[in-house]
Specification:
Blueprint lengths: L33 H10 L14 E2 L2 E2 L6 H14 L34 H7 L6 H16 L4 H28 L6 H23 L6 H17 L18 E2 L2 E9 L8 E9 L4 H12 L10 E2 L3 E4 L10 E2 L4 E2 L5 E2 L8 E2 L22 E4 L13 E4 L19 E7 L12 E9 L4 E2 L8
Antiparallel strand pairs: 1-2, 3-16, 4-5, 4-15, 5-14, 6-7, 7-13, 8-9, 10-11, 12-13, 12-14
Helix pairs in contact: 4-5, 4-7, 5-6, 6-7
């Protein structure tokens, strides 16, 4: 179970403003020109690269910067153009969307307001099937949207949310308890008792019209809900494929704190980002990262890309673009690993597009500001090693629930605290340390313990 800890960033800012990549609006469709593809590669795709390659130089006849192929890029833009509601047209020409007229109908991908809160995404990503606890969770999550409504109407909506959650808890408590893992049942029941008391306290807050106290109490109650849901997971729910079974695997969840020293910024000197790694849905990817954290691989490493779209690091000094395992003297690579919503185990080695799963939803989507994923070579799905990136939302080209990164890159965690400050990082800022604060016991086959 993840441990919630407190920390803060040394900053006088209360919010960060993200500058989105510019969308080209002049000339013919940017699918048709090489120059426009260069813009796409520079500004949009998380590449497996470092600052030493930032000029996109061609060396030995090979393109060192990673990018989509022309086919993938065309399909990506068609997907984005067809799914983004209210986005300015990329081209007024009637041929603008004729690049791939045989694309399937993807309108089903947008099925309601997207979930953007990293905590909520992690709660919904737990491998449980208990309708009763989800019926308690949803109205509590919906309080976030209710609070966006100004004045009395917003509090009235919050009150309805609280009453619905309380009613669901009373009616479904026995079913929730029956879903708890036997070894965790006592702890789960204790949490449910605290949740009931907290619901009554939230009801009193709403009746007293204390709007400012609603969100902190909501966060507390959702923490109880998330912990109850984790108590429903008895053991790791599936077997990792045999070819990856001996690799470092995170069979559960872990949390790390990443402390970054910020240079030349009078408003931000240093910041600690709290990151939750989800091994339930990406055991190989999360296990590889946690193993590197324990090796102190990232300590002292600079931020190598910060362009308003992603923040990226993980390219070590020297010619290698990944982690060289001292026990083998070879680059350790991991497979592309994507969990599809509704499936019991991830798919490996292929993008969802390659599998023809155009309508599939990923269990860990690129919905949240600070979504954490692995960079990889464009032409090799199984080429990820140590380079990681954090997505900075909201980009017009990556709307939640309809972005063009899901199913192509392996998400394995979210920044859950101070994520907004990612937008303040720049190339050259230094990761002072990444430390595990919980869940290390869930790492199996840890290679960092092997001398070499």
């Amino acid at each position: 179970m993840s441990t919630i800890i407190s920390f803060n960033c040394c900053s006088s800012l209360t919010a960060s403003k993200l500058i989105n990549p510019r969308i080209p609006t002049k000339g013919s469709s940017f699918l048709s020109t090489h120059k426009s593809f260069s813009w796409w590669n520079r500004h949009f795709l998380p590449k497996c690269t470092s600052q030493k390659h930032v000029q996109c130089q061609l060396q030995n006849g090979q393109q060192k910067m990673r990018s989509f192929s022309l086919k993938e890029c065309a399909i990506s833009v068609a997907l984005a153009a067809g799914l983004i509601i209210g986005m300015p047209s990329l081209d007024s020409s009637p041929m603008a969307y004729a690049a791939n007229p045989s694309l399937p109908d993807l309108s089903v991908l947008i099925s309601g307001p997207p979930i953007k809160d990293p905590g909520a995404l992690l709660r919904y990503a737990l491998p449980i099937d208990n309708k009763a606890i989800r019926e308690v969770q949803k109205p509590l999550e919906d309080i976030t949207e209710s609070l966006k409504v100004a004045g009395v109407r917003g509090l009235d909506s919050v009150e309805r949310n609280v009453k619905q959650a309380s009613r669901s808890l009373k009616q479904g408590k026995s079913l929730i308890i029956s879903g708890l893992a036997e070894s965790k049942k006592d702890h789960g029941v204790e949490l449910l008792d605290k949740l009931e008391i907290g619901m009554e306290e939230l009801q009193q807050i709403v009746e007293g019209r204390n709007r400012d106290a609603v969100a902190p109490k909501q966060k507390e109650l959702l923490k109880y809900v998330g912990d109850v849901e984790e108590d429903m997971v008895d053991s790791f729910p599936y077997e990792v494929p045999e070819e990856y079974r001996s690799m470092p695997l995170l069979k559960g969840r872990a949390a790390v704190d990443m402390k970054v020293k910020v240079k030349d910024n009078p408003n931000l000197e240093e910041c600690v980002f709290h990151i939750v790694l989800d091994g339930y849905n990406a055991p190989v990817t999360a296990g590889n990262f946690l193993d590197l954290v324990q090796r102190h691989f990232y300590d002292g490493m600079e931020i190598q890309r910060a362009d308003g779209f992603v923040v990226q690091t993980g390219d070590p000094e020297g010619p290698a673009e990944g982690f060289i395992d001292p026990s083998t003297e070879k680059t350790r690579t991991i497979p592309l690993e994507i969990m599809v919503d509704g499936e019991k185990a991830p798919v490996y080695g292929s993008t969802l597009e390659e599998l023809g799963l155009y309508k599939a939803q990923t269990k860990l989507p690129f919905n949240a500001f600070g979504t954490m994923a692995m960079a990889r070579d464009e032409f090799e799905n199984n080429s990820a090693s140590s380079q990681v990136f954090w997505l900075l939302k909201e980009s017009e080209l990556t709307p939640s629930n309809a972005n063009i990164l899901d199913g192509r890159y392996a998400v394995f965690g979210y920044v859950t605290e101070n994520e907004d400050f990612l937008a303040d990082l720049k190339v050259g800022d230094v990761i002072e340390s990444i430390q595990v604060v919980s869940g290390l016991e869930n790492l199996v086959n840890p290679s960092y313990k092997i001398a070499g």
